[in-house]
Amino acid sequence: MKPKIRTPFFEMGIKNYVYGDTVLNYAKALDAAAKKYDIDVLLTCPVVEIRRVAENTERVIIIAPYMDTLRPGRGMADILPEGLVAAGARGVVINHCEKPMSLPLMKRVTERARELDMLVFACADTIAEAKAVAHLHPDILNPEPSELIGGGGDGVSDLSYVKETLREIKGIYSDILVEQAAGISNGQQVYDDLMAGSEGAGAASGICTAEDPLAKIEEMVAATRRAADDLKKLRGEKT
Prior knowledge:
The chain is an alpha/beta fold.
């Protein structure tokens, strides 16, 4: 069954910043923070590390960074969706700017993911692209200006961009969860995006290239908890 994600949530990406035992150490730290702060966490995990992370964590929802659309049988070197699920992946990323897809391919991957009850975590650059991708009805949509990804730009997405993408995406499908992740490097940025209306926040380079990545994981998940509590207060709910 596809996991149901509580909001606000936090997503961590690995990309290829680290590998091997370091990936597992980061995943364990993310798992511990998820338990400590009672926050749902996602980990976009290198394919070769998925099974080991799945077997050594309890609260981490593992997202594969990519998959092909083939079915069991012939297909040398392609990434089999069923193999990802068997290893422990609960979802897949489509259309990250470092692995872009055509709209027809996004549609085919989304259909295969739905066959297997996998979450679809979609990425988009411009607001226009976010609107186009939203029509595929992914579970999560991460609109992020490509120039900010990987810490390549100056800062994070402008809050006006955050609010406009939220409005446009929710106008197409209100149940799509919207995450902001581009350029995030500290807990305050996580908090600000969540308080601006995003349902999730995430980071990859902001954690993996930090001076103390394990402390940065703790800081960002703690900020997600702080935003969750403050949002409840604004709604008049008990924390």
